[in-house]
């Protein structure tokens, strides 16, 4: 049996298991995706402009159950029946499947809160390159049903990779073991006071552990129901070479992307750039500078660190063919996991320049550009440049007076004194005159006698 056939049988079996379990087992003892949904949900949503829809969106239980079965068919193998990212196919997957209970996502367009539905749709339909997250070809109706069901996963009672206590392990073994309403009470206890009244009212009704976030970069659906990024106009169109050069400088210096990602300039080029702007600069290089630096997961899934991509070697997770530059703009502006959000710190033209530069690196993955990539790698790894020590600052010459030898108050003939020294000299001169007068008087007296 080939892999595709095996996966088909596995998923079909899971669907049958879900239906059978929902009918025969005690609902409270079943995994979440095997529990029949018996009530409607009202979810917090935003309109196309990113504004909160006060009345939210109510999804009927029948639609959520369709989404539940679609989830079991398409998603459970990796993400698990409880949405915890621990499905039977998750073992050994790097990066680990997302834990939906944590409500923490990497490739959305919000700085906090849950992604908007359009983010979920882009991720599911477009997939995440270089991971086990496939590009799913399902109907728009079924996709929407899956998205709404994903929002119903209640928050996990604790995170075993942070809380290693036996109590936490016991809670996870019995998860989910209480009603959704009880879960929501604790989930919103700390966040409800931070919401607007309209959002707070929705928050107590929805099956989401967080409110829907305000989009940093807006998106819309085109006539083919594909997601389009609404980024500002690209000022570098027709000036690719200039954009790449500007992006290269921003990447390596101003925004210091090399703190996590690989360097693509030689040690000598980095030294020349810094010294040209600051002759006294002390230039150093991080260890393994031509490689990425492993990063801890924002949510510790399986305790596994993630590796930022080497753009010349690794596929960019959420960059779609035909939408490379807008998607790179979105990724840089909105941030990715531990990668910060640059929308507030950078100008749009800088974000676009970075997008052009990263795209130029990503193009080296093409078989047609293998020679260029190999040449770049050879140049980088063959560079043994060691920066010379910065020039020593000239020290002021030490004078005899400052050396501490002899009488510091003595001055050379003809040398003028100023300030405090002048006052000291004047006083000494007056004292000397007084002594001379006393000597003359004594001499005169002696002469009289």
Topology of this structure?
Blueprint: H1 3-24, E1 41-43, E2 57-59, H2 61-74, H3 76-79, H4 117-126, H5 140-150, H6 166-173, H7 180-187, H8 197-203, E3 218-221, E4 227-230, H9 240-254, H10 267-277, H11 324-334, H12 348-362, H13 370-381, H14 400-403, H15 419-448
Helix pairs in contact: 1-2, 2-5, 4-5, 9-12, 11-12
The computed structural class is: mainly alpha
β-sheet strand percentage: under 5%
Count of helical stretches: 15
Low-pLDDT runs? 1-26, 177-209, 405-420, 441-449
Main sheet makeup: 2 strands, antiparallel
User: What count of structural domains?
Assistant: 2
Q: Order of strands across the widest beta sheet?
A: 1-2
Cα-atom Rg, whole angstroms?
35 Å
Distance between the termini: 140 Å
What is the count of β-strands? 4
Which H/E pattern describes the elements?
A: HEEHHHHHHHEEHHHHHHH
Helix content: 40-55%
- CA-based shape: elongated
Mean pLDDT: 78
């Amino acid at each position: 049996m080939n892999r595709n056939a095996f996966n088909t049988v596995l998923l079909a079996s899971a669907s049958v298991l879900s239906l059978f379990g929902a009918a025969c087992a005690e609902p409270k003892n079943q995994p979440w995706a095997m529990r029949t949904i018996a009530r409607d949900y009202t979810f917090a949503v935003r309109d196309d402009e990113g504004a909160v829809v006060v009345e939210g969106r109510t999804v009927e239980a029948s639609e959520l159950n369709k989404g539940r079965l679609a989830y079991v068919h398409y998603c459970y193998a990796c993400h698990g029946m409880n949405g915890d990212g621990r499905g039977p196919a998750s073992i050994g997957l790097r990066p680990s499947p997302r834990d939906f209970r944590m409500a923490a996502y990497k490739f959305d367009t919000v700085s906090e809160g849950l992604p908007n539905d359009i983010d979920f749709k882009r991720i599911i339909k477009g997939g995440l390159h270089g991971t086990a997250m496939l590009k799913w070809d399902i109907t728009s109706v079924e996709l929407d049903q899956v998205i709404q069901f994903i929002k119903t996963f209640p928050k996990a009672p604790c995170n075993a990779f942070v809380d290693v206590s036996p109590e936490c392990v016991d809670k996870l073994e019995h998860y989910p073991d209480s009603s959704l309403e009880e879960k929501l009470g604790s989930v919103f206890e700390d966040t409800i006071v931070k919401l607007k009244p309209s959002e707070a009212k929705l928050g107590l009704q929805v099956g989401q552990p967080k409110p829907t976030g305000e989009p940093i970069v807006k998106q819309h659906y085109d006539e083919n129901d594909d997601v389009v990024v609404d980024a500002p106009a690209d000022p570098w169109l027709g000036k690719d070479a200039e954009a790449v050069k500007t992006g290269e400088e921003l990447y390596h210096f101003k925004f210091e992307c090399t703190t996590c990602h690989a360097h693509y300039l030689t040690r000598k080029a980095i030294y020349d750039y810094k010294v040209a702007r600051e002759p006294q600069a002390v230039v150093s290089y991080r260890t393994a500078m031509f490689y990425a630096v492993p990063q801890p997961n924002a949510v510790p899934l399986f305790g596994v660190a993630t590796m930022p991509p080497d753009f010349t070697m690794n596929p960019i997770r959420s960059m779609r063919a035909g939408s490379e530059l807008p998607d790179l703009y979105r990724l840089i502006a909105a941030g990715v996991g531990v990668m910060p959000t640059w929308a507030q710190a950078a100008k749009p033209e800088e974000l676009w320049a970075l997008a052009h530069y990263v795209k130029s690196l990503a193009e080296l993955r093409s078989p047609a550009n293998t020679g260029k990539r190999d040449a770049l790698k050879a140049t980088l790894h063959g560079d043994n440049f060691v920066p010379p020590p910065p020039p020593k600052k000239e020290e002021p010459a030490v004078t005899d007076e400052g050396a501490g030898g002899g009488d510091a108050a003595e001055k050379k003939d003809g040398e003028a004194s100023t300030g405090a020294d002048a006052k000291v000299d004047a006083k000494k001169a007056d004292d000397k005159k007084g002594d001379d007068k006393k000597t003359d008087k004594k001499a005169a007296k002696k002469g009289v006698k």
